[in-house]
Amino acid sequence: MNQxxxxxxxxxxxxxxxxxxRRLGRxxxxxxxxxxxxxxxxMGPEVRAAEADLAAFCGARHVITCASGTDALLLxxxxxxxxxxxxxxCPAFTFHATAEVVALLGATPVFADVDEASFNxxxxxxxxxxxxxxxxxxxLRAVIPVDLFGQPADYxxxxxxxxxxxxxxxxxxxxxFGASCxxxxxxxxxxxxxxxxxxxxxxxxxxxGGAVCTDDDELAEVIRTLRVHGERxxxxxxxxxxxxxxxxxxxxxxxxxxxxxxxxxxxxERIAQRYSAALADVTAVPRLVDGMTSVWAQYTIxxxxxxxxxxxxxxxxxxxxxAIHYPRPVHQQAPYRGLPVxxxxxxxxxxxxxxxxxxxMHAYLDEPTQDRIVETVRRALAA
Length: 383
Fold this sequence. Notes:
This protein is of the alpha/beta class. 43% of the residues lie in helices and 14% in strands.
């Protein structure tokens, strides 16, 4: 194999975290060094500073950081007292952490279908899921729309349905922080929004982390106590909580990453537009709902079920990685089988799980590398 052939098939990263690390360089080193100097590793000053910066970025009144995106989903449900006998509606086309936090509290996830175009919670299926929950004798307490792949769910349609049923709206914004819905930023679209700083997220750190955004003063205060063992002050426990604190070193990293985040969102949008322009004539490309922006956590195309495995193998042989989110929907995962499903079933979810394929996407995907991906994808589809 000659040098040109090796270069043409050399593996490329699906998400290039190292490219961003090279860009930030000394800024990250200095931020971490400051924490090592003051040694306030738990709830140090960088945690409060990161929360203030995040609130300024998205416009939420309160941002409460925590140990992970999963904790960010769990804490608001704990604060609302959700538990056994309660129903929480979730889309089934998502990572299972969305339903996991419901089950951990002893409540019942009720699964709804998603919209064919956006992959996000279908308001009509939400209404059917509410009817299902009532038929099972469950108390309707909350709905967790998921902003899948970086585009917000349609909260303008979801909110009145939830309000009519007296349901709390918790946005699972693990993939969408930095996006907007009709000029309102993610973090301000629901009663509370949970996001994740897992390294592969659009705004990720170098470990785990998450945050809850809300304008509700009382809810924010309860969550602040819950994340520190239910303590209002040291050794003054006012409720049952958990150890859900955000690490100070990760907060320092986040502060530096947030400074360049808007530039990275612009780059992701440019890369997504190039993909769509180059691939729309050969496959089903993502579509944004009117009034929505996306941070493009994933760039996801759709292929017929019978062609997906062959496509994945063909591009892999040429050094192009792909990912499939999610090959088995949550309602088909072993711990969740038999739980209530919206009337009419989840046909879109089940179809998408067999058709979607995500291509490499990150803010540092240069045009020559993207062109190589596009050419490989087009050849594989033509074959």
